UniProtKB/TrEMBL annotation:
PANTHER family: 4-HYDROXYBENZOATE SOLANESYLTRANSFERASE, PROTOHEME IX FARNESYLTRANSFERASE, MITOCHONDRIAL. InterPro entries: Protohaem_IX_farnesylTrfase (IPR006369), UbiA_prenyltransferase (IPR000537), UbiA_prenylTrfase_CS (IPR030470), UbiA_sf (IPR044878). Keywords: Cell membrane, Heme biosynthesis, Membrane, Transferase, Transmembrane, Transmembrane helix. GO terms for molecular function: protoheme IX farnesyltransferase activity. It holds the Pfam family UbiA. It is a multi-pass membrane protein. This is Protoheme IX farnesyltransferase. Carbon 2 of the heme B porphyrin ring is defined according to the Fischer nomenclature. Converts heme B (protoheme IX) to heme O by substitution of the vinyl group on carbon 2 of heme B porphyrin ring with a hydroxyethyl farnesyl side group. The chain crosses the membrane at residues 31-48, 54-76, 97-119, 125-144, 151-170, 176-196, 225-242, 248-267, 279-300. Its EC number is 2.5.1.141. Pathway: Porphyrin-containing compound metabolism; heme O biosynthesis; heme O from protoheme: step 1/1.
Amino acid sequence: MTDTTAIAADKTDPADLARVGDYFALLKPRVMSLVIFTAGVGLAIAPGDIHPLLAFTALLAIAVGAGASGAINMWYDADIDRVMARTRNRPIPAGRIDAGTALAFGSVLAVGSVIVMGLAVNHVAALLLAVTIAFYVFIYTMWLKRRTPQNIVIGGASGALPPVIGWAAVTGTVDAGAVALFAIIFMWTPPHFWALSLWRSGDYEKVGVPMLPVVAGLRATRNQILVYSLLLFPITLTPPFFGAGGWFYEAVAAVLGLVFVFAAFRVWRSEEEKPAKQLFAYSILYLFLLFAALLGEWAFGRVA
């Protein structure tokens, strides 16, 4: 083989790299990143200790399980994803990955993540991971999403479970501190997604997904965003009462929560899309900073 031939043989085919990228896109990496972070915080602040290797394994299993759920969701929703502007370039509707392949890929990852969690960490964390995947796939994706405007409210339970799984990976149980973290994300989910749906309602209406703005109208959605935001505020202040966080977290949660309520109020009183887009963007930062405050206070307590 000549040097030129050897060099050519060593080059990575761009098509192969693109294909790897498409498989990664099936995992919904942006959603996965938030799942990993909240699960990591739950794992870090849980009472007790866990070996770093087991902690990494637990987070990897949670990440893979979340990605598997995303892949199966994309397989099931491929028909409506082809129509919606926000999703039409996903790997399956764009024709870059076969739907059956995506289903097999997601199913193998889902089963594998639960098995690894059960064998390497503990059975409680594995059971919670299995419930999270099953809830997202069967309850939210296949049952609720196309049938009821409460799809986000009920289906939000799956997105709220990762910190509980992280907590259980350390403690082998679920106690009040873990429930407090669950409640925060569960109550945060509706205003977060409804803010998005306010300016994407046309997409959802086109494919027959009964998001709240489509079924109840924009005014009712704005009302619900404000109500859930007001309910979210006191819930974010509860973790320190159950051993998660302290005065620093409480102060951060209060400030961030007041900003969230104000942003929701601006959505409530305005007919324009801009406040809803701003609330949606802030809601992501809000959840990250809220859990970062918990993590930061825990880390400071470890080194102090």
